[in-house]
């Protein structure tokens, strides 16, 4: 079981991540989103059906089998419990999941087109491959969950998926890192759409992933020496 202090820290992190997404301007007009943070092997915190003006005490605690353990959820949020728990079950290392209807990324979801990795921020924040598309199914349905599980199994290194005709789902080690990747993905989607008007985006040269990883490791080493 997670102690109260750890639970409060996780809730604060979720609120900060939500605020950061609004500040970055990557939310849809409605501001729709849901965020979660893993508490332990069996449970996670989940936003209650809204995220604008979110407060830590408004998050609910949910078990991986779909039971609300503490707090309250609106019916619309209850539908997405399975979406989050599917990721936590498939990826034990994942500590946070964020779902938005970010406009540019959602355009790729509506078009059923994977989002290519052609911007350096996507590489740096953990998505060094195309963002795959999960086939459409009613939100929270067995069809939707099964499709998501199959994509996660077939793409073991992806940190995001596009939900066909729906939106974007991103996951990472913690709420802050997940939010940073989500912003990078939305910016990349915007760049892809803009580049189409001037001839189309171009892939990275061969070896780009390794070059970026080397640069990150070198910078981290310098930072450790300086400290």
Automatic annotation (TrEMBL):
InterPro entries noted in UniProt: Aldolase_class_II_sugar_metab, Aldolase_II/adducin_N, Aldolase_II/adducin_N_sf
The residue ranges of the Class II aldolase/adducin N-terminal domain are 12-193
* Pfam families reported for this sequence: Aldolase_II
User: Which keywords appear in this protein's UniProt record, sorted alphabetically?
Assistant: Lyase, Metal-binding
Q: Which domain of life is it from?
A: Bacteria
This protein is called Class II aldolase/adducin family protein
Q: Which Gene3D superfamilies match?
A: Class II aldolase/adducin N-terminal domain
